Amino acid sequence: MGGLPLLLRLARQEADGRRVRLAEAEREREAAASRRDGFGALVTAEAEAAQGDPEAMARWSAWIGAARRKARELERVAADRLAAEEAIRDALREDFATIKRLEISLEQKRQAAARALARQAELRLEDAELQRRR
């Protein structure tokens, strides 16, 4: 079995750490999406408020360029957070696959060891039977 139990324990620890990082990434993505959506609502509210007033419309026209840049930045941040979350999720899937492979390998090694012990016991019984017959 060698180092399989150790490798399995290390793989599980890595997956646990990645689960924590995934939870943090989910919170960051949700916060970024919330900021983006909140700013979008602000832009919409400002546009509606400026529609009936020429002076407000002039202020809004000066403001909307910066607002669009801010909206693009918020959208980029939200997309980056989503990509980071997806990357962690993919790595976690790979961690689970690695853990499963290690578990299967460890179980196969244990079964092989059990079969070898059973075979040795069988051979000892055969030898004892042969010795008894002589």
Query: Quick one: biggest sheet?
Result: none
Terminal residue distance: 39 Å
Rg computed from alpha carbons, rounded to a whole number of angstroms: 32 Å
Number of strands: 0
Summed over residues and divided by their number, the pLDDT gives a mean of 94
Uncertain spans: none
Structural class category: mainly alpha
Count helical runs. Answer: 2
Give the percentage of residues in beta strands.
Answer: under 5%
Gross morphology is rod-shaped
Write down the secondary-structure element order: HH
Please tell me about this protein's structure.
The protein is built from 2 helices and no strands. The chain has 134 residues and is mostly helical. The chain has one domain (4-109). Helix 1 (4-50) packs antiparallel against helix 2. The chain is rod-shaped. It starts with a helix and ends with a helix. Keywords: Coiled coil. This is Flagellar FliJ protein.
List the helices and strands and how they pair.
Layout: H1 4-50, H2 54-133
Helix pairs in contact: 1-2
Feature tags:
single chain; 2 helices; 134 residues; mainly alpha
Short description:
The chain is built from two helices and no strands. It has helices at residues 4-50, 54-133.
